[in-house]
Every structure is written in structure tokens, then in C-alpha cells.
């Protein structure tokens, strides 16, 4: 059920290891961008803190400092935002953001399991005749950071056009972003064909992998 259940990115970051991430990548802005994303997603998904409690301050901060885009906020600004977000936990959840990565992981797993019964997941199952009692698994995987610079990105792609069935790469993407930026409409994604102009070698590799997947799974396709 793609997009119907909850996801938490950048899990495991805390006040201490965010400094290590900044040092190892030589990019403090990237490190604190990941941390503020975790604070926001974890708060909403695990502790039911309204997203507006984070978003309102974030947008006000950008406006007050004259930043047009999220990517314009420097490391120092993101660090201030992280500090504010941690105060939101105390105000809204009456508990601090957990600094222990194992606790973060345990609580995140429990929250994703619970999201099996959220409203959008139940509606999706009803629309697609999926039983409500089969349950779900929780996938845990290593982060691939799409927000680590102009040569990284995120997006959604299909090996075929999901509407017409045409055997052609179909999708959209954003550079220097993470997945929620695409699905939340924070920025307008680019058509996958634009990647041919921005990174021709990456686009060609994408096309070749897409073709291999279509060839391997051709017998399962029904169009």
C-alpha cells in the first residue's frame, strides 16, 4: 500500500551523532537538515504532535530571515530550528525527543505497525478489496540521503506508464531533497525526462535498469 502507511526517515540521529555526521560529511547544513526532518516526522508519526506545530515555526523562520526556499537556510538556522522542535516535544507531548537510537527504532516500529489502521490505509484497502486482517510488516533499511547536494535526489519512477501501460520510463524527481518533499508538495518535482538534460549518464543508467526489470518481469505484466 504505497504511501498509505507511515514512514520515518533519518532515524537514529541525536544531539551527539549529528555532530559526527556533520564532521564526516564536512557538511553541517546537510546534517542538521536531516536532524530537523527526523524531529518533525518522528514527532508527528510517533507522538501525534500536529505537523502544524513544526511547519508554522519553520515557515515563520524562513519569512523572518528572507529565505525563499528550504535549501536557503544555513546550518546555523537549521540548528536553531532543531532546538525549537525539541521544545515542541516538551510542550505538545510532555516528554523529550528520545536521544537513544534504540528507543527511537522501537517506538518507530510500533508506530508504523499502528498506521495499518489509520484512515487512509483503511480507505485504500476498501477500494482495492484488501482484507483488513492480514496485517503488515515493517521495513527497516539504511538511509540513502537524497538531500546531500545537487548530485543527489529523490523521486518516484515506474518501468511502465501506470495509466497506458506503455513500456517507457515514467516518473518524477527532485534534486537535493528527501521523499516527503515529493509527496507533500513542498517543491514541484521534475519529469524524469528532464534528468536526461541534468545528468545524462544517470538517466541512461536508469533507462537500462528499467529495461532489465521489464524484461525480467514481463510475464507478470498485464496491460
From TrEMBL:
Per the record, the coiled-coil ranges are none
UniProt KW keywords: Kinase, Pyruvate, Transferase
A Pfam family annotated for this chain is PPDK_N
Query: Which molecular-function annotation in GO is an example for this chain?
Result: kinase activity
All copies of the Pyruvate phosphate dikinase AMP/ATP-binding domain together span: 1-208
**Its Enzyme Commission number?**
2.7.9.1
Q: Quote the protein name from its UniProt record.
A: Pyruvate phosphate dikinase
Amino acid at each position: 500500500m504505497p504511501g498509505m502507511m507511515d514512514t520515518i526517515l533519518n532515524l537514529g540521529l541525536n544531539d551527539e551523532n549529528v555532530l559526527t555526521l556533520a564532521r564526516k560529511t564536512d557538511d553541517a547544513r546537510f546534517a542538521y537538515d536531516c536532524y530537523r526532518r527526523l524531529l518533525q516526522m518522528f514527532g508527528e508519526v510517533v507522538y501525534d504532535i500536529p505537523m502544524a506545530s513544526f511547519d508554522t515555526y519553520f515557515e515563520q523562520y524562513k519569512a523572518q530571515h528572507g529565505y525563499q526556499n528550504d535549501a536557503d537556510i544555513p546550518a546555523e538556522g537549521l540548528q536553531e530550528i532543531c532546538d525549537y522542535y525539541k521544545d515542541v516535544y516538551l510542550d505538545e507531548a510532555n516528554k523529550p525527543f528520545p536521544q537513544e537510537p534504540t528507543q527511537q527504532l522501537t517506538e518507530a516500529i510500533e508506530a508504523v505497525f499502528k498506521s495499518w489502521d489509520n484512515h487512509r490505509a483503511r480507505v485504500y484497502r476498501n477500494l482495492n478489496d484488501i482484507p483488513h486482517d492480514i496485517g503488515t510488516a515493517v521495513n527497516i533499511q539504511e538511509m540513502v540521503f537524497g538531500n546531500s547536494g545537487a548530485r543527489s535526489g529523490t523521486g518516484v519512477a515506474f518501468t511502465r506508464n501506470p495509466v497506458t501501460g506503455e513500456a517507457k520510463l515514467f516518473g518524477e524527481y527532485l534534486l537535493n531533497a528527501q521523499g516527503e518533499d515529493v509527496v507533500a508538495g513542498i517543491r514541484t518535482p521534475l519529469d524524469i525526462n528532464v534528468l536526461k538534460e541534468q545528468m545524462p549518464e544517470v538517466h541512461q543508467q536508469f533507462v537500462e535498469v528499467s529495461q532489465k526489470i521489464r524484461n525480467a518481469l514481463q510475464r507478470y505484466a498485464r496491460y
